[in-house]
Amino acid sequence: MRIIHFIHKNSFITAVFILVVAIVLSIVLHQPLFLAVPFVWVSIPYVWNGIIRHTDFLFWLLLCMLPLSTEWQVTDSLSLNFPDEALMILLTGLLFFKWLLQPEIIPFYVLKHPLFFLIIVHICWIAITCIYSVNPILSFKFLLAKSWFIVPFVLVPTMLLQRQKDFKKLAVYLIIPMLLVVMQSIVRHTFYQFSFEGIKKTLSPFFRNHVNYSAMLVCLMAILVAMIVLAPAKHASKKWLYVGMLVLVAGFILSYSRGAWLAGFVGVVVAFVLYKKWLWQLIVGGFLAAIVFMYGLVQQNKYLKFEPDFQHTIFHPNFKDHLAATVTLKDVSNAERIYRWVAGVNMLMDKTITGFGPNNFYDNYKAYTNSGFKTWVSSNPDHSSVHNYFLLTSLEQGLPGLVFFLLLFFTMLGYSQYLFHHLQSRFYAVIALTTGAIIAMVGMLNFLSDLIETDKIGSIFWLSAGILMVLSQQLTIEKQSIAGVEGTGHIA
Fold first, then answer.
1. Helices (DSSP H) in 151-257: which residue ranges?
2. Is the pLDDT of residue 35 over 60?
3. Distance between CA atoms of residues 272 and 270, nearest Å
4. How many angstroms separate the CA atoms of 124 and 358, rounded?
5. CB neighbour list of residue 402: distance below 8 Å, 6 or more residues apart
6. Res 234: pLDDT
7. Does a cis peptide bond (omega within 30 degrees of 0) precede residue 83?
8. pLDDT per residue over 39-84, tens digit each?
9. More confident residue, 122 or 8
10. Which of 138, 141, 142, 139 is CA-nearest to residue 129?
């Protein structure tokens, strides 16, 4: 404390001392970067004050950086998505300290919202499974990372999205950076004759692979569709929105991602289902179909019929052959997916209640695999996961973890339908419907992958939860406004 007091009272002497030390170190160690230390020291107070006073700037910057961020391997065992994940951590820390000083900073309607309650239950159960985890350190790292996804994308939007122009700003800040990524990808793709193999070489450093790229692309296309629907018919911006959509559609087709194409179809279907108020019929029908399907596979071990041919289950560089192999179940990615699903189910049967602990699939799954489903990529050098987020949740967090997540997921869809049919404002109703379609697409994508823990898709999923809470408050405001008008005896 005495040192801090001295530095505060003798800032000039401290600055001179830091300058001298920096010069000496740069000469002795032959490292000129030390000369930047005095300038950093002087700028820290101004940067800190700016961040504290303008937290909203960090949120908008974070949205811009989502499509542009890259994976940075900090150490052999630690990687960070930069700069978006660094901004998430900063926003989480700032909001925590602001909340300690001003508890009312988080709107009261958020704290009593059913979605917020389900998120808290989801997080609390993850914390419990961390205690029973096979490797608690890995699990608590997962829990920590989960917190800096939820705070910036669930809580911060409830404080910043107050008017229609804020939602428009949010859409623009997501779409424009993604357009830049798509355009550079298309340009680079021309040098590979738009080949299936070529797409993988055009996405660095922004996306790890075409799966993540196409997954984010299909979600943002839904937002752009909403922008086109809501734009006035003769407004000058509408033609630019159509141009942007053409670019995104071109990138979407050239992504050669079967999962994203299927997710796009599911998004359209679910939007129609929400429009017709058929959500609960769809959910019940889906559950019954899933139960019948799983029973059919398990009965008399019929799933063994899908065992791949190790010699002929290969990766096809030609997309036409790739699709044909998908239909005949001779595609290596699908065969490997089944290999890991079998292991995941076996893991779930072994630890049904608390699971193996978050972030513990890779270190434990190989002992639960069935060699009959093994492929030539089963060594898994990329340390990838089970390729089904719902199965991953159940085997790492137990069946209660899956139930809590499904409750959250379907409640979000339910709110999308409810808000669409009850909001008086067409603007907000379209946002509710679009949000529901995006949630459904994220669900479809995560049935074939596990992307919710990634910065590209996890951000969109949790942002959807925050938007639904904001729309719920907007519905409350509309109801109060209508009640106020009726109370005066005037007809609106």
1. 156-160, 164-190, 210-230, 237-254
2. yes
3. 5
4. 13
5. 390, 393, 394
6. 80
7. yes
8. 776 666 655 665 556 678 899 999 999 999 998 876 666 678 889 9
9. 122
10. 139
pLDDT confidence bin for 325, thresholds 50/70/90: very low
Name the 3-class secondary structure at 311.
Answer: coil
SS3 318: coil
Residue tagged 């075409």 (tokens):
210
> What are the beta bridge partners of residue 73?
79
For position 341, what pLDDT does the model report? 87
In this structure, are residues 332 and 377 in contact, taking their beta carbons and an 8 Å threshold?
yes
State the pLDDT at residue 45.
66
DSSP secondary structure, 68-124, as one string: T-EEEE-SSS-EEEETHHHHHHHHHHHHHHHHHH-GGGS-HHHHT-HHHHHHHHHHH
User: Which residues, at least 6 apart from 144, have a Cβ–Cβ distance to it below 8 Å?
Assistant: none
Residues 6+ apart with CB under 8 A from 170: 63, 157, 161
Nearest Cα to 448, choosing from 383, 362, 405, 388? 388
Q: What is the mean pLDDT of the chain?
A: 85
Region of residue 265 (left: phi > 0; alpha: psi -120 to 50; beta: else): alpha
Q: Could you tell me the sign of the dihedral formed by the alpha carbons of 360, 81, 125, 472, in that order?
A: negative
Instruction: State the DSSP H helix or E strand holding residue 307, giving kind and residue range, or none if neither.
Output: none
d(CA 330, CA 9): 73
The two three-digit tokens of residue 269, written as one number: 């279907």
Secondary-structure percent of the chain, ordered helix, strand, coil, rounded to 5: 75, 0, 25
Q: Do residues 460 and 215 lie in contact, with contact meaning Cβ atoms separated by under 8 Å?
A: no
How distant, in Å, are the alpha carbons of 308, 348, 399, 483 from that of 352? 28, 5, 6, 50
pLDDT tens digits along 281-290: 999 998 898 8
SS (H, E, C) 110-137: HHCCHHHHHHHHHHHHHHHHHHCCCCHH
Token pair for 307: 């065992």
Q: Name every residue whose Cβ is closer than 8 Å to that of residue 164 and which is 6 or more positions away in sequence.
A: 427, 428
Structure tokens at 177: 């950076």
CA dihedral 249, 255, 261, 267 (to 10 degrees): -60
What are the tens digits of pLDDT across the range 380-436?
A: 767 778 889 999 999 999 999 999 999 999 999 999 999 999 999 999 999 999 999
Better-scored residue on pLDDT, 72 or 95: 95
From CA 412, how far away is CA 283, in angstroms rounded? 13
What pLDDT score does 134 carry?
Answer: 95
Is residue 28 classed as helix, strand or coil in its secondary structure?
A: helix
